[in-house]
């Protein structure tokens, strides 16, 4: 991933140390109606807050189709991308799943230095984002590549290295459900605050 994190990519974040994908969704995907609405990024610092503009937002419709708007950075003009954010619930956690096309659209800017993957992803592969909605606050965490690498080295998790930074967690649906339930520590990164968005006060919760 790029070493620059766009403030709005809090909506669908990927940790900067690399990406981790599941071979397929562990559960059939549906649309969580609670995601519907207009969401604004919450800055984690004064520096981040100073960079946010009215062009930084995301709108999710009733079909979990999202429009992600990003403000101008350097020579890159403000832009919008269209992605889908279907998901599922497992245990007491909620996740949405991004296919390869959606991830590519989100990170279309600023990826010129990205290391190409040595192994091609299966078409069913998805990147998972764990989320929690409390009131008008959406909190998101993604899988930490460093944690995956350590668990793989310890033989506690089966993961295929796609290159130096990216991993594929293989398996059928049942196997991948077991992975999520057995390893909640995969999500989040020590010392890094979770990424959050606030529902726009002008768009009441569905």
Would you mind describing this structure in some detail?
- The chain contains 4 helices and 12 strands; from the N terminus they run ββαβββββαββαββαβ.
- The protein has helices spanning 46-51, 100-106, 145-153, 173-182, and strands spanning 20-22, 37-42, 57-60, 65-70, 79-84, 87-90, 93-99, 126-134, 137-142, 160-161, 167-169, 195-199.
- It is an alpha+beta fold and 206 residues long.
- The protein has a domain at 7-30 and 86-199.
- The strands form 2 sheets. It has a 9-stranded antiparallel β-sheet. It has a 3-stranded mixed β-sheet with strand order 1-11-10, with helices on one face.
- A hairpin with a 4-residue loop joins strand 3 (57-60) and strand 4.
- 16% of the residues lie in helices and 30% in strands.
- It is globular.
What is the succession of H and E elements? EEHEEEEEHEEHEEHE
Largest sheet: 9 strands, antiparallel
Round the Cα radius of gyration to an integer and report it: 16 Å
- The shape is globular
Helicity range: 10-25%
Coarse structural class: alpha+beta
**Which band does the percent of strand residues land in?**
25-35%
What's the helix count? 4
- How many angstroms separate the termini? 33 Å
- Biggest sheet strand order reads 5-4-3-2-12-9-8-7-6
Instruction: Count the beta strands.
Output: 12
Pick out the low-confidence regions: 1-17, 110-118
| Overall mean pLDDT | 83
């Amino acid at each position: 991933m790029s070493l620059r994190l766009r403030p709005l990519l809090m909506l669908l974040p990927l940790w900067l140390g690399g990406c981790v994908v599941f071979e397929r969704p562990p559960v059939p995907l549906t649309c969580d109606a609670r995601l519907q609405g207009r969401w604004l990024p919450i800055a984690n610092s004064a520096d981040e807050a100073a960079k946010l503009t009215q062009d930084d937002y995301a709108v999710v419709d009733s079909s979990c189709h999202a429009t992600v708007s990003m403000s101008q950075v350097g020579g890159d003009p403000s832009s919008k991308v269209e992605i889908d954010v279907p998901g599922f619930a497992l245990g007491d956690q909620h996740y949405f799943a991004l296919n390869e096309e959606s991830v590519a659209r989100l990170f279309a800017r600023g990826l010129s230095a990205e290391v190409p993957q040595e192994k091609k992803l299966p078409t069913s592969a998805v990147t998972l984002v764990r989320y929690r909605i409390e009131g008008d606050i959406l909190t998101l965490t993604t899988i930490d590549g460093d944690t995956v690498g350590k668990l793989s080295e310890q033989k506690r998790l089966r993961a295929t290295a796609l290159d130096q930074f990216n991993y594929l967690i293989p398996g059928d649906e049942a196997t991948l459900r077991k992975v999520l339930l057995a390893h909640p520590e995969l999500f989040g990164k020590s010392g890094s605050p979770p990424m959050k968005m606030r529902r726009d006060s002008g768009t009441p919760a569905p």
